[in-house]
Design brief:
Blueprint lengths: L5 H4 E2 L3 E2 H10 L4 E5 L5 E6 H9 L6 E2 L13 E2 L4 H8 L10 E5 L5 E6 L15 H13 L7 H14 L3 E5 L2 H11 L7 E5 L4 H9 L3 E5 L10 H7 L4 E4 L11 H11 L2 E5 L7 E2 L2 E2 L6 E5 L12 E5 L2 H10 L23 H12 L1 H19 L5 E2 L7 E2 L5 E5 L3 H14 L5 E2 L19 H9 E4 L6 H18 L1
Parallel strand pairs: 1-3, 6-7, 10-11, 10-12, 12-13, 13-16
Antiparallel strand pairs: 2-5, 3-4, 7-8, 9-17, 14-15, 14-19, 16-17, 18-20, 20-22, 21-22
The structure holds pyridoxal-5'-phosphate.
Length: 488
């Protein structure tokens, strides 16, 4: 969620009249909304209400919930209302009454946002949807008493995940980052080993390699795919190379056939960083089973979430067995408190897995709704010659995680300005990941040219990618184009 202006518009009673008047004055719309302790909307008070109350001698030094001049039935709309509907009340074209400002509430009547003509509603980059199915599963997990990692939801989630991918041995972890670390440790990659990865990714990819004691070797990306440049991999392979870590960045599948060919010829592993790519496909097969193992993230902004959480999926049972032991401090499965390997605690809780099971059931519709949003952005933004869309090809489909565009020659300074200006209009965006070679801590792992990853990283932004209608998207696009044109 993005921070909104609720502070200026909401109040809990009782309060001194002077305080209420100051608040009404601070938002320049002449109204405050009254909430209870759970932030539910229970009334409104405008400067007009106070004036009328004064004329009837109802106003005293304190305003409390029983004050007669309070409006106990304020107008509100649901937070998920289409902006067209919101506008029809703010502009009063269709509806009888015109409102200057409308609270947008959730199903429990808790205020989520305030809509005014200047700022219709906020568009968070990702709008998480949790409903009763997740909540009921969590209640079941709590009631079962199994709230740590022992409990049937964990193994059920792992089984369901493998079924969804179409095979493999799945293991839950505490995050996508620990999934990567566990994968590397289970393949016995560590001190003295090298792992090749692309310059364009979230820090978790490179950090996981460093955290297991191995050395990351960073290569540029291919501008046609935004993913690791397969021609550059061969140049960087040495006798110490143990694995390639292809990252399916922004849900874009890597060229797996080429990577597989290299890995086979050099006898090295493939550890897929698929944190952003759940549901993406490569040559009609889901991402997740093309390498020796793949790692997913269930952070709140991902395709499905467990709050925090991750999954490693192995192709071979022997690594799966070792990983299961490492994630539980290396403890023997036969002898309690007897440790056979040096492990750690990477265990997901039963409560998280309960959420995951419910989320996984909805994955098809979650991806479809994101795809609808991606395709509409593409349709409208394709015609601007200063915008490059995420690459498309006929051998893969994206996971539709985060809608990202490259604005030609924008540069990081103008991009920062663009992000700020869009946020002022209620549109939350994100810069692309900074390339590893631009950060001091990673420079020692980088050599050679990184011109393509730098170009993508320095000129790209991600737009709101979930739970928006085409009408909302039109509004976002119109503002985006206007703001870009002010800068380029
Ligand atoms: C490419 C990539 N790898 C790894 C991760 C790490 O996942 P987590 O945040 O669950 O640790 C992320 C998370 O955003 C990611 O984008």
């Amino acid at each position: 969620m993005i921070q909104n202006n609720l502070e200026k518009y909401t109040i809990q009673l009782p309060k001194k009249l002077n305080f209420v008047l100051k608040k009404i004055d601070s938002n320049s719309n002449g109204i405050v909304f009254i909430t209870n302790l759970e932030n539910k909307l229970i009334g409104s008070l405008s400067d007009g209400d106070i004036r009328r109350g004064m004329m009837k001698n109802q106003v005293t030094k304190y305003v409390n919930i029983n004050s007669k001049y309070i409006n106990k039935k304020p107008f509100f709309l649901n937070y998920n209302s289409d902006v067209k509907k919101i506008l029809s009340y703010l502009e009063s074209k269709k509806n009888k009454k015109k409102y200057k400002c409308i609270p947008l509430v959730d199903n429990k009547k808790v205020i989520q946002d305030i809509s005014t003509i200047e700022s219709l509603r906020k568009y968070p980059i990702i709008n998480l949807k949790i409903d009763n199915s997740e909540i009921n599963n969590v209640i079941d997990a709590m009631k079962s008493g199994w709230i740590s990692s022992a409990g049937s939801f964990v193994s059920q989630f792992e089984e369901n995940f493998s079924k969804y991918l179409g095979g493999g041995y799945s293991i839950t972890t505490t995050s996508g980052t620990t999934a990567l670390e566990l994968a590397l440790k289970s393949l016995q990659i560590g001190l003295g080993d090298e792992v090749i990865l692309p310059n364009l990714s979230f820090a978790a990819s490179i950090n996981s390699i460093i955290n297991v004691g191995a050395k990351p070797v960073v290569v540029d990306v291919n501008p046609k795919t935004w993913t690791i440049d397969c021609n550059r991999i061969l140049e960087k392979i040495s006798s110490k190379t143990k694995a390639i870590m292809p990252v399916h960045i922004y849900g874009q599948p890597c060229e797996m056939d080429k990577i597989k060919k290299i890995a086979k010829s050099k006898n090295i592993y493939i550890v897929e960083d698929a944190a952003e790519a759940l549901g993406a496909t490569y040559k009609n097969a889901k991402i997740g089973l093309h390498g020796d193992c793949s790692c997913f993230s269930f952070y709140a902004n991902k395709t499905i979430t467990t709050g925090e959480g991750g999954m490693v999926v192995f192709k071979k049972k022997k690594y799966f067995k070792l990983a299961n032991q490492i994630k539980n401090h290396g403890m023997s499965r036969k002898k309690f408190y007897f440790h056979e390997t040096v492990g750690s605690n990477y265990r997901m809780t039963n409560i998280q897995a309960a959420i995951g099971i419910s989320q996984l059931k909805k994955i098809k519709s979650l991806i479809l709704s994101r795809r609808r949003i991606f395709q509409y952005y593409n349709k409208r933004l394709r015609k601007f010659n200063y915008i490059n869309l995420l690459p498309e090809n006929n051998w893969s489909t994206n996971s539709y995680w985060l809608y990202t565009i490259l604005i030609k020659n924008l540069g990081t300074k103008k991009r920062e300005k663009l992000i700020k200006n869009l946020l002022k209009k209620g549109i939350e965006t994100r810069p692309a990941f900074y390339p590893f070679n631009s950060m001091n801590i990673y420079k020692k792992y980088c050599s050679g040219s990184y011109k393509f990853s730098e170009k993508i990283a320095n000129n790209s932004i991600s737009l709101p990618s979930t739970s928006i209608s085409h009408y909302d998207q039109d509004l976002i696009i119109d503002i985006l184009i206007k703001e870009i044109n002010k800068l380029i």
